[in-house]
Every structure is written in structure tokens, then in C-alpha cells.
């Protein structure tokens, strides 16, 4: 049975898995070094990862049909080129897919990481069997993917679905995209930190608290234990997300919104406000049929989505 490899490439680590018969049979994660952030270094690292992963699965490399990659940034999927990636500033018009295909003698397909997560949910997760849905990934920022008419919608330049940069507060927190009040400055861990910073929640200890990677979880636990200030942060999170979801529903008329990412696990804290706010933000005929559901793949979505991308290549072994 043909196998495919899915690679979830992040800013600090790479996670990869072998998918065979619809299930993951081997997985590994590697921390990226400074050298791995160069064009030469990342190709070397990914070749090593794929070869070791396939060996761990007890199969020859020749049994792999294709490789899929989800990567952050602006990805030109048609030829597997990273045009720009904030996480890898040295990469400009970098043909990563072709370079890796040449080294592995396997076809390689690459897409934006949020699109890959969406494809994973469409194929094996909460969007399976749903022809049209939108996926929001709520984590350090807000990623998103549009699954329309049975496929990822990418737009003219492959950048469609940057919903994290919808304006939800015109004079709001500044965003590194150059705008103010973007969704990801509210409905994300960055957004929660913005609120804590704004209110100096911990007094003189606020700056130190902001450096704690576990801060979002602490805020969530406090909110669920009745802390009114932390409850207010998640209400603001839900309020801003409702504005964005309303815009998406009125634009695409989908009936399913999938919430992915680590902060989707905080749905009990922000969903009541999101749902209440959404009811008053648009045509009932558009809002009422829509369901907001948690994902099913969680942390495995990137690997499984990249593998699903590879499955779409078919069996022709040529570089893409």
C-alpha cells in the first residue's frame, strides 16, 4: 500500500509523519537550529527527517508516493515556492519543494500551513463530508483556511483566507502587518497578552508575567474558576471573533466554522459571548444555520493535512 509523508514546518521545529491506509504509522519531531533557517540548511534537515522517518516506519523510501509540506508565510503552491516567510527571513522566492524533490527523487507539494491544517480537517477531521467550511486556527496568532466547493480556495496569489487580519476594532491594538485592530491581536495568545499589558493585570509583575509561555493557560484556568477580570478577557476574545465570523458567514454563506489550535480548547470560556454576539450581527437566514465546532485533529492536523496534500499528487514521481 502506498504511503505518503506529511511535514508540518514551524518556526522552531519540524514535525513529520508517515500516513498509510488513512492512519499515521510513524511520527517524529525535530527542533530547528540556526543553520536550519537557511535555504541550504532546511533542505538538508528535511531530507534527514524524511529518510529517518521512513526507516522508523520500517519501509524503503521507494514505497513513499509523495511528500506534502505545510509552511508558514506566502506560498506559491503551483510551483512550491516560498515567496516570503516572516519566520524564515532569509527565504525569498525559495523553491523549497523543487529542491527537496530533487534530493529525495519524490514529488513534493507545498502550501501555507493554515491551508494544510484546513485540508487535514476536510479530509479526516471536523470538515470531513462538508463541502464548504472555514477553519480558524487560534494560537499565537490567528490562521485560517477556506474550504469552498470541495477544495481549498487560495485566491489569485495564494493569499486568500488571511482572516487573522480582518479589522475588528478600527483603533485597536497595532499589528505587525501594519494595520490596527486585527483579529489576531484579540483572539489569540498575543491578543490575551495585549489585554494583560493594557490593564497591567499583575501590577509591577506584569512584564514578567507576559514572558511566561504558560500565561494563556493560566488566564483560562482563572476564568473558569470565576476570576471576573480573566472572564472579561475571554469575553472580549469571543466578541472580536464574532465580528470576524459574521463577516465570513456573510461573504461565503458556509454552514460550518471549525476552530483549530491550542486556544480552541478555551471554547468554554469564549463561546457563550461569541454565540450571543453573533445572533445580533447579520441576516438570520445566514447566521442561524451556521455551526461553530471544535476541530478533531488538534495537534496532528498539520502533519495529517500535509499528508492529505501529498495524496492529491497521485502516483507520478516527478518534482512539483
Give the helices and strands, then pairings.
Blueprint: E1 3-9, E2 13-20, E3 23-31, H1 39-56, E4 64-71, E5 74-76, E6 81-84, E7 92-94, H2 96-104, E8 108-112, H3 113-124, E9 133-138, E10 142-148, E11 151-152, H4 189-199, H5 206-210, H6 215-224, H7 228-252, E12 256-260, H8 267-279, H9 284-287, E13 291-294, H10 301-311
Parallel strand pairs: 1-4, 4-8, 9-12, 12-13
Antiparallel strand pairs: 1-2, 2-3, 5-6, 6-7, 9-10, 10-11
Helix pairs in contact: 1-2, 3-10, 6-7, 7-8
Describe the structure using short key phrases.
320 residues; alpha/beta; five-stranded mixed beta sheet; 22% strand; single chain; Nucleotidyltransferase, domain 5
Quick overview of this protein structure:
The chain is α/β, with parallel strands linked by helices.
Structural summary, described in words:
The protein has 320 residues and is α/β, with parallel strands linked by helices. It has 2 domains: 3-118 and 300-311, Nucleotidyltransferase, domain 5, CATH 3.30.420.40; 128-295, 2-Layer Sandwich (Nucleotidyltransferase, domain 5), CATH 3.30.420.40. The chain contains 10 helices and 13 strands. It has helices at residues 39-56, 96-104, 113-124, 189-199, 206-210, 215-224, 228-252, 267-279, 284-287, 301-311; strands spanning 3-9, 13-20, 23-31, 64-71, 74-76, 81-84, 92-94, 108-112, 133-138, 142-148, 151-152, 256-260, 291-294. The chain has a 5-stranded mixed beta sheet with strand order 3-2-1-4-8. Strand 6 (81-84) and strand 7 (92-94) form a beta hairpin. The longest helix has 25 residues, at 228-252. The protein is globular, with a radius of gyration of 20 Å. The chain starts with a strand and ends in a 9-residue tail after the last helix. The relative contact order is 0.16. The model is unreliable at 315-320 (pLDDT under 50).
Amino acid at each position: 500500500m502506498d504511503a505518503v509523508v506529511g511535514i508540518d514546518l514551524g518556526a522552531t521545529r519540524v514535525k513529520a509523519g508517515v500516513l498509510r491506509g488513512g492512519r499515521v504509522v510513524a511520527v517524529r519531531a525535530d527542533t530547528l537550529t540556526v543553520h536550519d533557517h537557511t535555504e541550504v540548511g532546511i533542505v538538508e534537515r528535511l531530507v534527514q527527517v524524511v529518510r529517518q522517518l521512513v526507516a522508523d516506519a520500517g519501509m524503503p523510501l521507494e514505497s513513499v508516493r509523495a511528500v506534502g509540506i505545510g509552511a508558514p508565510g506566502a506560498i506559491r503552491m503551483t510551483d512550491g515556492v516560498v515567496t516570503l516567510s516572516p519566520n524564515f527571513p532569509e527565504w525569498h522566492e525559495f523553491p523549497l519543494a523543487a529542491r527537496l524533490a530533487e534530493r529525495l527523487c519524490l514529488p513534493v507539494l507545498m502550501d501555507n500551513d493554515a491551508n494544510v491544517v484546513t485540508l487535514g480537517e476536510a479530509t479526516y477531521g471536523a470538515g470531513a463530508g462538508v463541502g464548504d467550511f472555514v477553519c480558524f486556527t487560534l494560537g499565537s496568532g490567528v490562521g485560517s483556511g477556506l474550504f469552498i466547493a470541495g477544495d481549498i480556495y487560495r485566491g489569485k496569489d495564494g493569499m486568500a483566507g488571511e482572516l487573522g487580519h480582518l479589522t475588528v476594532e478600527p483603533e485597536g491594538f497595532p499589528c505587525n502587518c501594519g494595520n490596527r485592530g486585527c483579529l489576531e491581536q484579540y483572539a489569540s495568545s498575543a491578543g490575551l497578552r495585549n489585554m494583560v499589558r493594557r490593564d497591567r493585570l499583575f501590577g509591577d509583575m506584569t512584564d514578567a508575567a507576559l514572558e511566561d509561555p504558560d500565561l494563556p493557560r493560566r488566564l483560562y484556568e482563572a476564568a473558569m474558576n470565576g476570576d471576573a477580570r480573566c472572564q472579561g478577557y475571554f469575553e472580549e476574545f469571543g466578541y472580536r471573533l464574532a465580528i470576524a465570523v459574521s463577516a465570513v458567514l456573510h461573504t461565503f454563506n458556509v454552514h460550518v466554522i471549525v476552530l483549530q489550535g491550542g486556544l480552541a480548547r478555551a471554547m468554554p470560556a469564549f463561546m457563550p459571548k461569541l454565540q450571543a454576539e453573533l445572533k445580533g450581527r447579520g441576516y438570520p437566514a445566514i447566521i442561524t444555520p451556521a455551526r461553530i465546532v471544535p476541530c478533531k485533529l488538534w495537534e496532528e492536523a498539520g502533519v495529517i493535512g500535509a499528508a492529505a496534500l501529498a495524496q492529491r499528487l497521485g502516483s507520478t514521481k516527478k518534482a512539483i
